[in-house]
Design a protein that fits this description.
This protein is mostly helical and about 425 residues long. It is about 85% helix and about 0% strand. The chain has a single domain, classed as MFS general substrate transporter like domains (Growth Hormone, Chain: A, Up-down Bundle), CATH 1.20.1250. It is built from 15 helices and no strands.
Amino acid sequence: MQVISELQELLRLPDFRKLFAVRLVSQTGDGMFQVGLATLFFFSPENASTATGVAAAFAVLLLPFTVVGPWAGVLLDRWRRRQVLFVGNLVRVVITLAIAGILLTSGVGPVVYVLALVDLSINRFLLAALSASLPRVVDGPLLLTANSLTPTLGAGAAGLGAGIGFVLGLLLEPGRSKDATVLTVAAILFATASLLATRMGRDLLGPERRTDAGQMRAALQNLARGLVAGARHLRERQTPARALGVMATHRFLYGVVFIASILISRNLLADPADPAAGLRTFGTVLAASAVGFVLAAVLTPVLSRRTGPHAWIVYCLVLAAVSQLLLTVTISRWALLAAAVALALAAQGAKIAVDTIVQRDTDDAFRGRAFALYDVLYNAAFVGAAALAALVLPDTGYSPALFALLAVAYLTAAAVYGARAPRTARHP
């Protein structure tokens, strides 16, 4: 297959291999970290059995990076990105071990939640650094394949980490020591990712121009001005700004469906009094989504080259609309899983194309800010989706009228973006 041969070409690039290793190990640890949070926030007996509860949990998880994101952009355009990967993973080691220690001594409390939010915010910062660094180790047509495979395989690594954490939870005795052990293993993986980052040269990942301490302070003091300059740059380039706009729209609509899936899994397709059964049901939804992500990684490099990345985004939005129309007809388990596969394929396929457009059409000096703005929009859209879900979703999560409206919204987004997208080059 073409994608396999191109992956082999990528793996022949030594700098790509080093960056890719950092991503895989770091995201495996993140999967272990997040599986514990998911169980705590969404599938514990006392939490998140209502639309409002799930929406509030997502807002708490995502709002911090929505605030931190703009600062990340300024720093990623001035700090050595290799050092960001090194130091950021080390900080995660310290925070994760601190959480494990608090769980052993005091149990779950406000400090655990605060530290968990900081840990997740650092992870989003690291992911932005990884995305901004990729064009420094890959260029030309292989960049599309790299954008397709690295986030998807990174998500697969996170899934592997989540699976390891779940298995450890089954093998270990219930209690505080079980949670602390899982977190300790995650911390070991973060430490490994930090060490792997040292295999790369300090200047390999850019940025090309750096500033001294005084200039850095001035840059931070003029954060708003820098972000406005970054946004103006994206708008002047046109295609990155439009791509970010359609991504935010897609993410908003996807967020409503994701929250509905949690509620449907817990309260409709399983006994609401049995959160463990709801977790198993939602696990099958996540597995179906993983299939869609893999399909996106395989299909996008092939089909996007034929259609062009802009047309591919339109096709993905149409596929997302079809997935929602299916849920207006039935909410049986097979329909939910089929819709999850289709929507994940659409979401990840569009994201791959958006990543490529933003990377290709943004100057390196602005690329860090571009991806920080990307993550701010990405998370803010999901927070907005959570607010909408809290208002319109029943606690069972199922509303045929809402799914129909989501389908119409996807089709409208496809029509608007398709009408304004350039039609010149097919290849990114």
